[in-house]
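Troubleshooting: if your tokenizer reports a length mismatch, compare your output against this known-good record of 585 residues.
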Amino acid sequence: MVRQVLIARLSVIFIVLATYLTVSPCASAQEGLRSSAAGAGATGPGIYLVFPFENSDSSPRLDWIGEGLEELAIERLLSAGQQVYSHDGRTSELDRYGLPPAAKLSHASMLRVAQDLDADFVILGSYSSDGRTLSISARVLRVTPTELLDPQKESGTLDSLMDLQTRLVWKLLSANDAKFHTTLGDFSKRQSPLRLDAFEHYVRGRLAGEDEARIREMREAARLEPQWAAPDFALGEVYFARRDCDSAIPWFARVPKTHEKYVEALFSTGVCRLQMNQPERAEEIFTALQETLRHGDSGGPRVDTIVAGADLPEILDDLAIARARQGKTPAAQADLRRASEIDPDEDDYYFNLGLLALRGGDFSAAAGYFHKAAEQEPENAEDRALSIYSLEKSGKKAEADEERESAVETFGPNGLPTVKFDAKGEVLARLDRIKSELDITALRLDLQAGTVPANAAAPATANTAASHLRSGRQDFAAGRLDPAETEFKAVLAIDAANATAHRSLGEIARRRGRLDEAVRELQASLVTRDSAVVRTILARVYLEQKKPDLARSEAEKALKLAPNYAEAKTLLERLNGAKPAGGAR
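Known-good structure output:
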């Protein structure tokens, strides 16, 4: 289930993202875009979103350069103290809409992705080469107000790709930010030296469709640049996905504490320890991660890439499993309850709580947890089977029979799995659900204030709607709902129609069970900006209010805006498969 702790995401109304368009805007979208001379009305710092550069007329052998230029642009922006989404952050958003990472989008479609990610600026570009000379062009698309700046250009030999992109990004920053006064010389000195051939192998490895090709390319990149952690982490990911922990752990161990991927590398190592049934070592790792997130310091992982004080439900879940396997049940229950508070839409945390209660002989509590899990994922047969089993064990036969009848309608007469037991007659421990992916995208803007070089552009600290919005988003993503609510209300005091603030207040109200308030805030958000994401959230609130007709209507409207939006599709399928509720409204 997709976590509802992701940072605020909006939608714009002028184009359906799911259509694959050319890089040039379509006619209707073009009317919403206006170009300006570079530097005119230059704005201050904001959040950047970078797309792969388009191969205009070069050989297909050079297709890798497009994604390579995206990666370099991100790194150069980070070095300048800018906030920027990672490659993974962008591809995750496209995946939500059922789009491949390399989909060619119009300017308006890029703008929509930026709005959904609450980014302020988009960097887009193209390149061409005759095999010797490389020409690169890039421009900034400002999100609010919508404005397309004039292109910046650089050209030189293919071997100078790194330097060309350094100069190009410097030009883009200078044109877009009136307060960016760093000289090209100083900007260039901040870039880490990297062999072009190692970088090419790394990018080709990331683009490879098969594991063996990816491993081969990444190993070569690691050989050529042994101090570069990016291919080390990538290799760890490949082996981890194969559940080959013996191979994955050594590669993850090569990721230094100062690297932005260290947290994910350590998390995956902890998951491996659980899969290898080493709960003591797993607990050590997940406890260390919790401390890093809460009290990170300069001696540990880069806290500039995470939100200090954050509790991540994935870490809490796996920490709970590690503790439960050692018999530390109260601590495990506390961890799982906190995870379910942060991410109430995820059934796994309720399921694991149900297992703990079941093993402790509290069948009534177990039935409640499994029922809650089944509410979040009605199509999960295992949730339903254990809910029925717990009801029977707690002596609630009538409720168990009713639940079984409902499950037969959903899954068929033989659709429910059999509850399995170990030699002692207890529910098997390995039913617990380990979270194998750490969703840190919602917390990362890849550079936080406090680690910006002294001569870099300073982040905005004014008492503005934007500053309150970013603070609120970070608190919200970290599960700190009280300060988040305060920040979002401060936004509305300045900008009463701010769609992001209304949407976020709606999500907070939903988490706290104030469903009528959630509906009002989400509807207020939609008045300012129509959004498939917000309509899907509203549909879920209506479903919780037992108003399936209204929920269905919102899900259908969401799919009209974004036909490939996976969450809306899943919800609508669930609603269409449900029994009518008498037109409740």
